[in-house]
């Protein structure tokens, strides 16, 4: 993922409800991505989200789950 793709992931984590997806195609690399937040949890300090990433990179399909938490700087960081 390049910088524009990472910004899209941030956008999905910040704005997309659980079980809804944000999909895009990178116009430069031609790679395709779909990010789906699947669970949101809250502690006294922060929000965390589990999410699913589906990607098509150079013709190969990849699927990965991850967890990210929102830090005080407002950005989501993977655990």
From TrEMBL:
It comes from Candidatus Thiomargarita nelsonii. Residues 17-77 form the Surface antigen domain. It comes from the Bacteria. It holds the Pfam family 17kDa_Anti_2. InterPro entries: Anti_2. This is 17 kDa surface antigen.
């Amino acid at each position: 993922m390049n910088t524009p793709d990472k910004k899209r992931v941030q956008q999905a984590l910040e704005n997309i409800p659980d079980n809804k997806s944000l999909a895009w195609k990178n116009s430069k690399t031609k790679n395709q991505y779909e990010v789906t937040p699947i669970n949101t949890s809250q502690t006294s300090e922060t929000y965390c989200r589990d999410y699913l990433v589906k990607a098509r990179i150079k013709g190969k399909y990849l699927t990965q789950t991850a967890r990210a938490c929102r830090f005080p700087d407002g950005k989501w960081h993977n655990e």
